[in-house]
Amino acid sequence: MPLLFKERQAVLAELAQRYRRARKGEKTRLLDEATKLLGLNRKYIARALRKRPRKSAPLPRVHRRGRPPKYGMPVKDALVRVWAILGFPAGKRLAPFMAELVDALERHGEISLLPEVRIRLLAMSSATIDRLLAADRRRLEIKGRSGTRPGSLMKHGVPIRTFADWDDAQPGFLEIDLVSHEGGNPAGEFCQTLDMTDVTTAWTETVAIRNKAQRWVFAALKEKLTLFPFPVLGLDSDNGSEFINKHLITYCQQHELTFTRSRPERKNDNCYVEQKNWAVVRRSVGYRRYDTPSQLALLNELYANLRLYTNFFQPTQKLVRKERHGAKVRRCYDTAKTPYQRVLASDKVSTEAKDRLTAIFRTLNPAALQREIYRLQTELMRPAVDQPFSPLPATKPRRNFEIHSGS
Fold this sequence. Notes:
Elements: H1 5-21, H2 24-38, H3 42-50, H4 73-85, H5 91-94, H6 98-107, H7 115-122, H8 126-132, E1 173-180, E2 192-198, E3 204-209, H9 214-225, E4 234-237, H10 246-254, E5 258-261, H11 271-285, H12 293-313, E6 319-325, E7 328-333, H13 339-345, H14 351-363, H15 366-381
Parallel strand pairs: 1-4, 4-5
Antiparallel strand pairs: 1-2, 2-3, 6-7
């Protein structure tokens, strides 16, 4: 006589507890018995036995055979510490730089690793790093607004250079751009960040200026060009009037610098500096409005520490080639290296410059740099204690985002 529905459910509930605790051979025997007893489809019975009741006590954990985990909590804790100090990079950027970073941290007494922990940490692949850090990775993606205004007819005398035209075999060709700090309210006067990035080595210099007037941009540009560890050979900008003007064109002609510009509305032509606008500037100072002398001074103090942290301890990857297979494009990147490592690897940079950089690198503590950067970021997020450069209308800003970097 076939069982009633409630009776079948009671039998399945009783068998389910035994089934979930059983091993493979015993599960097969239970399925055979349940199929003969209930007269139901075998797959239906298997699904019913695997299904956990909504309101039931947690089952005791069954010991499973298998190899123990290779990376325990001491290794994971050390990885999270190193990952945080470096600014939460991806595994492909962190893995090639792991040995040099650990050496620098141990040299300055920031970490102390057991021998077995150190060996396992340095042996990690990029995929393992990403897997272990998956639960800790969080990103906030916010886009800003462009403040570029068209230049004069003088731009027709400046040749156009696209992304495909770069011959990045030699350091010294820079892309330059401005990042606005209006906080969503473009009225009045507010700070700007001049961002300069070398195409070959990714060496980046940033400086905050009072506004985007030509005099401030030109003065900051001349000052920061001397900080690059190699001679500057060329500049490439967008079509804004802060760059396309008589002062900068004459300066480039006098110093025999190649001066080019991108195509209008084609940000990919300036992809190297556009990437640093986010990775260096926006991630560090966010999207708030900065419009006072004290905030301008804090920005420049922050950038003085950030240039060391970025150029000596932030690995980057460069696109080597693109392969098209039908509709799919496969991008191939080189091994991640810091701008400092790329400068040392270039035969176009003098030995004296490389020796100076090596001496500076030996004195730098990445953890101390990060703490100082975080202190300045915290100070920058506080309300300004002085008046803005110019009075603003009493309008409520449309957006005012904040980004805090973890320490």
